[in-house]
Queue: 3 jobs
Job 1
Amino acid sequence: MARTVPVGGQPLVLLPERAVYLPDASALLVADAHFGKAQTFRRRGVTVPAGTTSGNLARLSGLLSRTGARS
């Protein structure tokens, strides 16, 4: 569930998908995207679950749709 908190007079919407939405700026801040991490690990022989990048992209797509963020 999202939670809105005021910081410096601005609302920040804390999202459970490891992101923060700044409605006044229409901006989405994302943490822990790890793009390319699975490929790098696999190249070094570390087993990683399949679908990590597509899962991250789906999460971002959903966040962009839900928030309407532009930047």
Job 2
Amino acid sequence: EANPDVGLQKMLEKIGHSLQAERVLVFEEQGNQVSATYEWHQENLQPAAHTVQHIPINSLRPLYDTFDAKQMAIIEDAQAFVRAHPGFTPHLSGVRRLVSGHLTQSGKSLGFTEVVNPSALAFKSASLLLSTLTLFLASMLRNRDTFRSLERLSTTDQLTGAGNRRGFTEYIGTVPDGISLAFIFGDLNGLKRINDTQGHEAGDHLIQQSVQTMKALNGDIAVFRMGGDEFMVIARDVSEQQAQRLVRELRARYQSSGISMALGTVVCQTPIANIDEVLSRADREMYADKERIYTSRRHS
């Protein structure tokens, strides 16, 4: 599967059908907690993954201690297991039989799988099947993380941590209809002079400062580096008046930091039929502000 999440989901479905189970889940460790991140269940059952989130790992220690040399835990009688481990509370209700596989990668614990209530006939073969597939699942989780990391890098400007142009395009595609968006386009003045007189390291620091100032704005905002010295803030659910207030706040912050930034803003509703037209309007507003800045300097 090109999409790792789809591949993992299909793998759980195959395991569930093969073992005639009621549900199959993947639990992943996040610090000292474990949460269900993937689930397959029979059609007549309700999903349960959302009910088993942020479980302290210490409360699951009896399960972890049960994993054998093959990283498997086979619990034929769940109630007897609970009685044998005082203080252990099952995190899922209605569990009678359980087969669990410890997900590891290069000796590091990632979490575990749970096959809930496999059929009595399939239970005998569950250990062999799941011990093999648990290795595949661990590899699939690693590949998913690699895929997500590459996706994140492809949409992120490495110097500033802001989104790049691709990230901007993808962000616009995720905004639902009927949302008011303010596009605040900024162009940094004097970057070439800083690069020429103080060096590119100083110029890079100036770019980073500019982005951090944008990120410090309050509200539901996203920040993108559109080019070398061009930046975009997108603020959601704001009126024209609120957008102008954000621009004034940005100007004040840049002025107090000794940064010269020309700003132009456009407010529009989604869906946006022509994003290039919106960018052109914001660009014109920004250049009008830039002309105002340079005119003010000449007169001073």
Job 3
Amino acid sequence: INQEAEELLGYPTEKWTSTPAFWMDHLHSEDRALVESYCAATVENRGPQLFEHRMVAADGRVVWLRTSIRLVAANEMKELVGVMTDITERKQAQEAAEGASRAKSEFVAEIKRLNDRLKEENSRMSGELEFTQRLQRMMLPRDEDLREIANMDISGFMKPATEVGGDYYDVVSQNGGVVFGIGDVTGHGLESGVIAIIVQTAVRTLLASGPYESQKFFEVLNRVVYDNVRRMNCDRNLTLSLLHYQDHLVTISGQHEEVLVVRGNGVLERHDTLDLGFPLGLEEDISRFVGEARVPLQSGDVMVVYTDGITEAMNCARVTYGIERLSEAVRNNHGQPADEIREAVLRSLHEYTGGQDLLDDISLLVIKPA
């Protein structure tokens, strides 16, 4: 037993060497029979064995290990000699990805159920409307959930350009903080809507699986999107930013549109996210692109995130609404509650476009700390 074993699991070396059954006694109860079977196979001269299992550390942590054992014989003495390698981080990432995949499968099954219902009712148009409404309800946080988040005034809005939209936004309260997500899947229609639902499910699954760390989070999330886009045989990808708010500080990660902040004194700030990430689903590994930016957010400040359906909306002269008009609408109403800021932006957009049909989905999320 070397020093690394003591540091990894927290038990002094002398505990290992003075107690013959120490290793077996500290195996995870669910893995003991498996480990014993590999040891028996080694003793029976079936050759070296390699397996994965869990042990319980001195502080109660569960540690995943990859262990290789072999039989050593000398002077009629036989011993099992082994090497343990810590694989806890890999296992946690694998479990998170599997959880996201299971959740995705449940949603795909639900989509299939709805599609079967369409065939049974022989009513494609009415079924599409129901299906669209179901998708949007599954994606969006409910108003009552937003109101229950302490010390925050939050208002959101999403409107698809066609039956099914590819915009995504979500709000998740977690461990005394709040995680805000805003994203935009390329294209429109069913495929884009399914990708948006997969992202929403994967984000919530990963947030529930452990502490948030942006680089690892986006690495696993991108792998889920990348694999599913190829399984669906479509060419969709998306931009996505996550904003982690805690103790009046927002940590921004992921590439999307600019993040707008208007301070209590009316000063406008525009925070670019271009260098904070990479579109999800394009490359198998994007971990090297993921970065973070930290922005203080105090009581009286307002933060706004949006999709480009707002800034790229056009008037009759085919001139876009633009980031400057959006910024001005927020700044002119920054002292109002979040709902009223949202309505002021949507009213400004509607007046500018003359009520024309949308060419792209639009989403807007207004955040005000108390």
